[in-house]
Amino acid sequence: MGVKKQPDIHVCDRCGHETTDSSDRRGSEEGSLTLNWRGSRGGAAYNGDWGGVNHKGDGWLCMNCTDAFLEFMKGATRSAG
Predict the structure, then answer these.
(1) pTM of the shown model
(2) How far is it, in rounded angstroms, from Cα 69 to Cα 53?
(3) DSSP 8-state secondary structure symbol assigned to residue 76
(4) Are 60 and 52 in contact (CB under 8 A)?
(5) Measured in whole angstroms, how far is the alpha carbon of residue 5 from the centre of its chain?
(6) In sequence order, what are the residues at sequence separation of 6 or more whose Cβ sits closer than 8 angstroms to the Cβ of residue 64?
């Protein structure tokens, strides 16, 4: 008897939605978004020294959270299409 392979589970990093379809197909619609981000946050102390922290990461968003992210970013980026 062969070993049954389990499908990959994709979990949305925003809402926790789980799916085995990386394009998050729901009925006649599908969509997902893979993100990479980086940035920093810092400031000056009273003595003039500067300090801060760097941020970076990546994530996967389901179809619904992709829609919410694109609405949030509307006007901040130009569409390629």
Answers:
(1) 0.70
(2) 24
(3) T
(4) no
(5) 27
(6) 15, 17
Residue 36 pLDDT exceeds 90 = yes
Name the helix (H) or strand (E) containing 4.
Answer: none
Q: Do residues 41 and 50 touch, judged by C-beta distance below 8 A?
A: no
Backbone angles phi, psi at 15, to 5 degrees: -110, -15
Q: Residue for token digits 């940035």? A: 39
Spatial distance between the Cα atoms of 6 and 65, rounded to a whole number of angstroms? 25
Q: Which residues of 33-49 are buried (b: 16+ CB within 10 A; e: fewer)?
A: beeeeeeeeeeeeeeee
From 36, 39, 79, 81, select the one nearest 59 (Cα to Cα): 36
Q: Are 66 and 32 in contact (CB under 8 A)?
A: yes
Asked whether the predicted pLDDT for residue 80 surpasses 80, the reply is no
